[in-house]
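Internal tracking record. Fields below are filled automatically when a chain is submitted to the structure queue. Please do not edit lines marked as system-generated. If the sequence contains nonstandard residues, flag them in the REMARKS field before resubmitting.
Queue: standard
Priority: normal
Entity type: single polypeptide chain
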Amino acid sequence: MTFLVTENCIKCKYTDCVEVCPVDCFHEGPNMLVIDPDECIDCTLCEPECPVEAIKSEEELGDNEKQYLELNSELAKAWPVINEIKSAPADADEWKDKTDKLALLER
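SYSTEM-GENERATED OUTPUT FOLLOWS
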């Protein structure tokens, strides 16, 4: 099993989660983070650190979220590793409660 980053991260990109990851499995894109499912060791440390509850275990994904396993895997191969906290985007708080953000994902 693995943990994955879901839609809630898009345009929020809080990085509280990356510093607790013991295997550096987070990757940073322009407006979202992803977890490399092949590197994740299912330690659960990142999940409670996310202020927008964007991190879920593979088993917790709803039917409409299953696509995030493939998306995290694909984007982790293209984006660089991030393992230090950075400032969130200036407008992150404005986006944290919004839904249907997948179309806003920047690759």
